[in-house]
Protein 1
Amino acid sequence: MTQDFDSALPDTLPLHPQTSLQRWRPVSHSSMFDIVQSEFYEVIKEIAMLGQPIDLRPLQNAYDELIRAQSRELRQATLIHDTKESYKNQNSEIEPLTLENWDDYRNGTLKAPKLANVYSETKQLLEQDPAAFMPPVNDLKKLITALPFILQDPQSVIPDDNNTNDEIKVEGGQIELKCPISQDFFRQPLISRKCGHVVDAEPLRMHFERLRSAGRPVECPQGCQRTISESEFIPDKLMELRLHIYKARKRPHPEHSNAVTL
Ligand SMILES: [Zn+2]
């Protein structure tokens, strides 16, 4: 028994079939990302309430950095997940370790995969498609894209907005800031996830009530002749911003009100 310790041990060993590798998992920052996103929304709202066009580049740069961080986290989580799957698959195809085959694993006749190698291989595969880990376009991204346009004109149509061809919503190239039912300015605008039409919350509730009590199907109040349900309506953050800006513009300037009181 003169073998040194190193060569007495196999280089790699098969994964025990009952080892789940569950404890090896990425740290998730998704709740932190949620907080940062809501902070972003508050900043955007404050900018809208000022109602004046400002330099938005610092905000856009910070947002891009957030997206890069989310993308990195998504990639890392996928890398760990795929590595574990691949490592388990490779182990399921080799002989489980026994006293009898210990020497075969030690002298290299039998070989078990090395986790570090599987990790590197998986990483190389993922690097072939860098665009695959961009987070999906979310509401915040849409608001940041729209902000420069609506700061210029709160009723402006956003280029590449899916609603630009909607003749009902856009009249004379302007977005309507009034509810199609009440004809008042939106107070709590809700947007349909199905047709993109915007209705104010309270008039919409009454619209449902009226038609249901008459035993009639409830159609979209903007005339797209679709039967609608309450659950398809979500808060329209973009419309809220448009109204903040519109109202900020209507307010008299402080200098002006000073002049009046003098
Ligand atoms: Zn509709």
Protein 2
Amino acid sequence: MTHRARTRMCAVLATAVLAVSGGYAYGAPARDAMDQDIETAVQGVDAYWNAHWSEFFTETYVAPTVLGEYDGASADVPTCDGEPLEDDNAFYCKTAEDYIAWDTDLMRSGYRNGDAFVYLVVAHEWGHAIQNRLEAELRTIDGELQADCLAGAELDGAARDGTVVFDEGDVDEVRMALVRGADTTPWTKEGDHGSAEERVDAFGLGQELGVEGCLPEEVSTEGAAAVLDR
Ligand SMILES: [Zn+2]
């Protein structure tokens, strides 16, 4: 039921977000392919929430700050709540700083297995920012898998809006990146984020069912869920 309403709205909103994406693709200075993919992911996920937030939640959507790349091995590492960000990891900093960031080497190593990896990282961290805007009852017990589910919903939604191109093989790329990276980086390590299979399943759930599929089952989405004041 809710899905049908959303599909109708997509057609109307797609034009506006396409313009944003097109403007970026042709107007940006020359950068390497990975940087462009990261930027496309950022633009696409942000445009998705701008266009669709009100279909699921009350209040207004406020984007997190995108701090972007950092080098966790350098002396000049950004901090969250006073703590330097970990090398080879990616973060949503949920203090008042409210930013997302990722280590360059994490992105480079994942990108070698396919471009889908950087989309997953951006969308997953954005998913944590979204969680942080929701009331506790809308968060699932396993916050990491909910972030993977939201990543699937965001990227599938962005693909339907036309801001991100998501190929059929991309889910396999995500799986491969998670399996191969399993013990090499904190971001892909099994203990912190769930096993690769659990993560791919959560991502797939979000792709298939959208944002509602990522919310706890007992929560009715009928009454538009409230979010925290920011
Ligand atoms: Zn996470």
